[in-house]
Amino acid sequence: MEMLLALAPGLLVGAGLGFLGGMFGIGGGIIAIPLLGLAYGMDQALAQGTALVMMAPNLVVGAWRYHQRDPLPLGPGLAIGSLAMLSTWASAQWATGLDSASLRMIFSIFLLLLALRMLLSGKPRHAKAPPARIPERWAPLVGLVGGCSMGLLGVGGGLIATPLLTSLFGLRQTAAQRLALALVTPSALVALFTYARAGHVNWQMGLPLALSGILTVSAGVRVAHRLPERSMRRAFSWMLLGSALWLLGAPLLKQLGA
Predict the structure, then answer these.
(1) 24 confidence band (pLDDT: 50, 70, 90)
(2) How many CB atoms lie within 10 A of CB 127?
(3) 244-255 burial string, b = 16+ CB within 10 Å, else e?
(4) Which of 83, 85, 187, 195 has the most CB atoms around its CB within 10 Å?
């Protein structure tokens, strides 16, 4: 009974994050990290490492299911995954050595830029990709950029890789998402290992987040299909913008209060 009570907060939070991740279609990690920092008082590296506990199994399951429906060619998948793992490891090593204030500042600016991009962009999610500017054979190099984001921030690999693959290499949205998943899944595992090795993972919170999050993702997806996509994207963008501003402003408010 005492064990269930100890796990209850993580289970409840994980269920909510899984639902929101499924509803907004971007993933629970980008919501979990600000929540763990602001509501639970975790430093930035610990929040990112703990969120990775939830993200990694979800991504593995998602990648497997996606592969069953639309198999990824082995060559491109291995190429982008290998480069992503390398840059994830290097950037995670650097991130775990940064002070919490600097890492939180970088993460907050990323959220701020992402929110503004989503608010200002009127382009439909499934719009036709523009003509390729760079030959497709160089597409795996995007793994270096996406992997750096995963290692440094714990999130963002797919959010960065997908628009790069469509705008620069002319890939269709579905092909870009498939290749981005080959990037993000191994990167999340490498990032989790690196953060855990540095002691920046709260397993007592992370494991319940992962368990309950898996159970509620499908419900969030069902709700998302009943609501207008444009309204959903704007709501998510405003939530990211508010989180970024709060993360940036909280230290200032604390100093003023002191």
Answers:
(1) low
(2) 10
(3) beebbeeeeeee
(4) 187
User: Hey, what are 205's tokens?
Assistant: 């919170």
> What span, in angstroms and rounded, lies between the C-alpha atoms of 7 and 209?
9
A 10 A CB-CB count for 171 gives 22
CA 219, 220, 225: angle at the middle one, nearest 5?
A: 100
Distances (CA, A) of 14 to 158, 203, 206, 217: 21, 13, 9, 10
**Distance (Å, whole) CA 125 – CA 26:** 12
Tens of pLDDT along 82-108?
Answer: 999 999 999 999 999 999 889 999 999
